[in-house]
Amino acid sequence: MIEINKIYCGDCIEIMKEIPDGSIDLIVADPPYGISYKSNFRKQKFEKLQNDDVVLVDWLNNAFRVLKTDGAMYCFTRWDIYPDWFAIVSELFKIKNCIVWYKKGGGLGDLKSGYIYNHEFIIYAIKGNHVLKEKRCSDVWEIQKDIAIKYLHPTQKPVSLIEKIIIKSSDINDTILDPFLGSGTTAIACLQTNRNFIGIEIEPKYVEIANKRISDYKQQLKLELGVTNE
Questions:
Q1: Which CATH number goes with the domain that contains 52?
Q2: Mean pLDDT of residues grouped by 10 in the chain (230 residues)?
Q3: Would residue 187 count as lying in a domain?
Q4: Which of 74, 85, 114, 186 qualifies as a FRET site for 167, CA 20 to 30 Å off?
Q5: Residue 46 phi, psi (nearest 5)
Q6: Is the sign of the CA dihedral 112, 115, 119, 124 positive or negative?
Q7: CA distance 209 to 206
Q8: Structural domain tally of the chain?
Q9: Which domain, by its residues, includes 195?
Q10: Contact criterion met (CB below 8 Å) for 118 and 104
Q11: Is 1 domain-assigned?
């Protein structure tokens, strides 16, 4: 039985089969892009991500199944494989926007013949008739990426970015699914916005990192609230 506010270690395709139909309010997904990405901007370099040599799409059928009618899915991708992801996602969901995340700092890439990578795409897709919360905003989001030396995962996203997605497309106490949780950013964003989460991550080392982030966050929250363990 799948529980909320818990991280599951394993293949999301298998674990998502245990999630009941129409039980998820929002999906935030940052799957391997299919580009064999490896971050080199560190003294201690990350290993290549599992399954990042193909456009991994088998999870989308279950994503559609578990998402509530009138729910939304946000899926990160990159400009050079965006057409592949658009075509596949649109077979199941109605794509409403391609959000451009301007991450202010970019990456190195080709230093001589290419421009600096300074953005990523987020496919915003819906099932049914999803209604955005709060005031309508632009599809270009200027949010500073995390400092590279503080990365716990090679494709780490800032909490503020995931928080914006959560606030725009869910309500307090809703349940958010992240099938590729990585270092736990979505879980932290859910805790900070009073949402529930279900996280799935295939790499045990990142599950451990994510659980530690959650534990540290809860401990810090206790300190801020003046709560002590007796």
A1: 3.40.50.150
A2: 96 96 98 59 49 72 98 95 94 98 77 87 98 96 85 83 98 98 96 98 95 94 75
A3: yes
A4: 85
A5: -80, 150
A6: negative
A7: 5
A8: 1
A9: 6-225
A10: yes
A11: no
